[in-house]
């Protein structure tokens, strides 16, 4: 793979650090946190405790017999993590057929087969449980976290995984300003980096300068696996502090130098471009993304988990990700029974009737995805738009309320969403502990007279010959709403086209701006968008995902990116936000971040939501639709229902290593 292809889909540094920096507050986690220990026995459905490994895949047993691979007992830890199969102990063999739409879709691989963090979420999304770490102890004020690793654990190349690897990832990569100028947010508090120290060969300790009550939840979520995927024995040969020829070695791998290689490893790009990089995953790549029409993964012989019968996982020999052109091709593959399990791109409301009709011939069934979505369509006018006149228009609350009343939500629900859902603003769902009926229903009535009344309050009452209001600069109020063409959400653009006539009737000209995902992301990150739409995460786990209610960075929650920049840089960059936004940021980062008690966290989050309700930063349309995925009738140990959310690393949470193929079905 050449450097240009590799760079085209690498994680953006700002996005990566912001994701790691956002305080992750899950549905339950530690509750009223006091001195406690998480151990395998407390790990719920993941099982735990020591076990005698009894079985392994026939292909690995053959390699052992031929002297090409150490015996099983020498390849796995003394206390491997025990995974309880969803249905039953499986069988070895077979390949999971999956697909990606282009190289840019590979970020999903980290959630599919790369979810091997120190701790992980349980299936109920209620608590963090040990994973790579055998146990975790937290002191009473949540400033010290002690992790015990698994004795005898190995990387995929057979080299030991030890405390030294975590120390290397922390000190030599994450805290190295030459590699990363900014400290990842989840590894610091109040701008001060954590201290990480070796206690002994298996034990390490994080110490924070102030309470970090939600550190474990952060480690269990999103891209917070950096501490467990940067092998010292491999990467040190490319690190200038360890190797004199690091620059040459990096250039030999088609990088511009050592720093680019180390950054690519840090931001996870190297996981999919460099098959030689050792890892802790159940399957390891046989080729780099972009090399050929498929990305193939094969079983890791040193994988460190077993089932309840003591059989080494994974059951499946491997995974094949076909690189397909678009969602139409992928839909055809599903209908023809060529995909074993899939939860992206084709599982839309529009496609469900045809997928349902062809289930028997295609040999698949549906499973349920419980969405954490806030809405079917979150409309975000860029309150920090670079165009001064548009910024003034967008920041006017009456303007936003007027637009909201000019949306015929029931028409959208009927036409676009097959009569599913109810009119809804950007607000927690009914099932959420933070549900607020008033917030959810305000300004949802379709009333063009009322819309005009609010818009007239802005003072922009003069119109041109086409009936479009003239803004503060004397020009027609016209703006573009950014939609991603590769997001697998065609209903976003469909809904906007239905909204457009109503807005034009009240004197506002809106245009739909369709862009591919790469350009869309670049425009948002550069604050060059005028407005954008997304469905929005945080309907259930609102505290965990606050970016649609307050200034917080996210590629899809970008209604005020430069306000967040100003707050995050303490005024050194960006645009100064109004006091309500400052107050939201203060509550979240100074109080919620250090609050171990769940009820008090929720109370603080209600304060943030009350401000969001009053300010009405964003506009919603209707409640999120229930989701679904497709799984082959022969594909076993897949849960029938799970969550689908930005901070819930699905499907990794469901333990894909215990999936298996039933050849008798």
Walkthrough of the structure:
The chain has 24 helices and 25 strands. The model is unreliable at 1-34 and 40-50 (pLDDT under 50). Helix content is 29%, strand content 16%. Helix 9 crosses helix 10 and helix 16 (397-405) packs antiparallel against helix 19 (448-457). The strands form eight sheets. It has a five-stranded antiparallel sheet with strand order 1-6-7-11-10, covered by helices on one side. By secondary structure, the chain is an alpha+beta fold.
| Low-confidence sequence ranges | 1-34, 40-50
What percent of the residues sit in helical stretches (DSSP H or I)?
25-40%
Rg, Cα atoms, Å = 25 Å
SS elements, strand count: 25
How is the quaternary structure best described? single chain
Gap from first CA to last CA: 39 Å
What shape does the CA trace take?
Answer: globular
The average pLDDT value, as a whole number, equals 89
Structural class given helices, strands, pairing?
A: alpha+beta
- Tally of helical segments: 24
Lateral strand order in the biggest sheet: 1-6-7-11-10
Major sheet size, sense and barrel closure? 5 strands, antiparallel
> Which range does the strand content fall in?
15-25%
